[in-house]
Amino acid sequence: MKMKRIMFMLLAVLLVITIVPAAAFAADSASGNVEIRLKTNSSTVAINGKQSTVQAPFEKAGTTMVPLSIITKAFGAKLKLQDNKIITLTYNNKTVVVTIGSKTVKVNGKDQTVAVAPVVIKGTTMVPVRVIVEAFGAKIGKDKKTGEIVITGTIAQSGNGNSNSGGGSTNLDPDYGKTKFGDSYYGWTMNYPPGLKLLNQNDDGSFVIWGSTTSDTSVIISTEKVSDVLTKSEIQDKIVSGWLGDDEVVIDKRTITVNGLNFEKVVTRTTERGLLFEYRALQKGDTLYYVMGGVAGTDKTALDPYQSLLDSFIPSFDSNDKTIKDITKVSNGLMSINNKEYGLSLKLPAGWYMDKDSSNPTYVSEDGYFSFSISSVKEQDNPQQWLARRQQLLHDDFLPNYIKNEKTSSITLKDGNALVLTYEFTYDQKLWYTANEVLLIAGKYRYAIDFNYDSKTGSQGEALFKSTMATVDIDTAYVEKNYGQMEDEFDLDRSEVTVKTSTKYGYSVALPAYWFGVNTDFNKDSVAYVDSFGHMILQNIEDMSASSTAQSVQQSLQKEGVTVSGSTSFQIGSANVIKFSVQDVTEDDIPITDVFYFVENKGNTIMFLFGINNANATTSALNRFDTIVKSIKFQ
After folding, report:
1. Are strands 124-128 and 63-67 parallel, antiparallel or unpaired?
2. How many CB atoms within 10 Å of residue 156?
């Protein structure tokens, strides 16, 4: 499926940040005193005599820059990280806010200017030490004998409401202390960029995008399952056909080697949006990994600052590496789905995906289908009556030899007891599917869940249905509060019609009100409607009689080897009507019946084409076509 490129609108700064949790480095001082000894350009630091190795402090513009972890380690300051670049430290009622790349430091809400802005070096956040430790009430000086910078202070003791001892509690976002992102299920890792939020991740986590609303740059990781070993050109074709927008021009396409791995690389420039994109793709086993970045600019050198980030991607995940933030949505083979708009949460196997064309939550896979809908409880209605109508609808829509093993049962969901209508159905007498219609009434609303699976999976499909239902949780309180009157599109009065009029061609016609209009302007040549199992196409043809039009259509069909059958004619008032049908198959080899009607009016012809699956060509459905055509009234 071709991916849409609406994602490259985001991302600010692509650096790698690490902030070591304070709790891991709390000062070990029974007296509450703390002493820090360090030297510029030396990676050894001593806190209360205990040495550890850090990113070497350095001096710039008269300012000593030290790893932030030294301060959190020694003082146990509380720390909050916002937007992955704004760092708030609190200690003994003192608050210090520093921002990566900014020379403005806030001390208790007042701005101070420092000579050197906090910066990230080799994954470590380096900060100006003096302004922070002095705000904490500590002193900073130099030991002339050793040449060491010495910081001394006192840690407030426990029992004081302002205590920070014990390592300091933290109020952090989930990215705190991480230097990398990764997905343990799909098996990839990449360095972590600050000033960047995870903006979107699809249900199974196979597509992830980071960005910000302040920049036209973005980073995306996407995975795709493939069945064959792809060649270099095939991978490049997948990039071009699957990801490039209409206004993108390829300016670089080649193989690159990064960390011993060969990636296919495509660089593009847009002709309209003023953006550059770099796409990389690598196959490992049955997975094709895409690594992509976009940035505003017209010269491809604008992508240079992002190369180290893109180069950091590897198609593996080390579960023992605690610097990796695992963003997987899959646990034990299941992905968690939370559709807040419908108050729905559940778990489905990895590989299922949301059908974005559906008007209600629908998730599909190669072998299964899950759909969820909400409707209002009808007056004096109950679950048994609702179930009976569903059964009647089943028999109205399917011929007897296309359904089997029909039964009813009940199931206990987290939100109450539901009734279940189970049956097997087919469209071609070859492939059979098991359907489970789960019907729950809770409060003022009805909740319908359709769970279908390939019947050949047998007990495995049934087990999946039951295990999935056990995870379904509906926030009925949310629905009661936020929803109004909701009609059930599958529980409507099918006798209700809507009258459509063509002033141009001088007629009106009554259509089932539950049909969905695709092209609905009856003053145009062509009109189209669909229902659950078929379609209607209406064509207005000028200056041709019904017989001439029918003969022309029949000849065209016969040239294609299609046999016409059931040819009849009748009158609607003074208008002559010709009718015939043909048997056909869809692209999926599902047998269908096409029924043609040709209605003549003042030398013009109205042609109706009704298409319906053979499985659904019941007497009531075919009679409905006759009823529609016979409803025509001429002006």
Report:
1. antiparallel
2. 18
* Cα separation, 53 vs 605, whole angstroms: 88
What gap in Å lies between CA 496 and CA 14, rounded to an integer?
59
Helix axes of 619-630 and 383-397: crossing angle, nearest 10 degrees: 80
Distance (Å, whole) CA 608 – CA 541: 11
pLDDT score of 164: 43
Measured CA angle at 91 (ends 89, 93), to 5 deg: 110
Q: Which one, of 397, 403, 386, 492, lies nearest residue 448 by Cα?
A: 386
Query: What does the angle CA 23 – CA 97 – CA 94 come to, to the nearest 5 degrees?
Result: 70
- Through-space distance between the first and last CA atoms of the chain, rounded to whole angstroms: 48
Dihedral sign from CA coordinates of 518, 520, 524, 527: positive
pLDDT at position 167 is 40
Per-residue pLDDT tens over the stretch 119-151: 877 667 889 999 888 888 888 988 888 889 999
Query: What count of Cα atoms within 13 Å lies in the side-chain half-sphere of residue 347?
Result: 13
**Per-residue pLDDT tens over the stretch 54-102:** 888 998 888 899 988 888 778 877 777 776 678 888 887 788 999 888 8
Find the mean pLDDT for residues 300-329. 91
CA 122, distance to chain mean position in Å, is: 33
* Residue matched to tokens 């009808």: 378
Q: What is the pLDDT of residues 368-401, one digit of tens each?
A: 999 999 999 988 899 999 999 999 999 999 999 9
502 beta partners = 507
pLDDT in tens, 455-512: 999 999 999 999 999 999 999 999 999 999 998 877 878 889 999 999 999 999 999 9
User: Which helix (H) or strand (E) covers residue 309, if one does?
Assistant: helix 307-311
* Domains of the chain listed by start with CATH number: 22-154 (3.30.457.10), 180-326 (3.40.1000.10), 332-482 (3.40.1000.10), 497-634 (3.40.1000.10)
Where is pLDDT greater, at 32 or 211?
A: 211
Q: Where is pLDDT greater, at 626 or 125?
A: 626
Which of the two residues, 153 and 251, has the higher pLDDT score? 251
Residue 391 β-bridge partners: none
The phi-psi region of residue 271 (left if phi > 0; otherwise alpha if psi is between -120 and 50; otherwise beta) is alpha
Give the distance, in angstroms, between the CA of residue 361 and the centroid of all CA atoms in the same chain.
12
Q: Note the pLDDT of residue 194.
A: 59
Task: Report the distance separating Cα 362 and Cα 346, nearest Å.
Answer: 12
Global pTM? Answer: 0.63
Q: Which among 601, 471, 477, 588 has a CA at the least distance from the CA of 540?
A: 601
DSSP output for 38-75: E-TT--EEEETTEEEE-SPPEEETTEEEEEHHHHHHHH
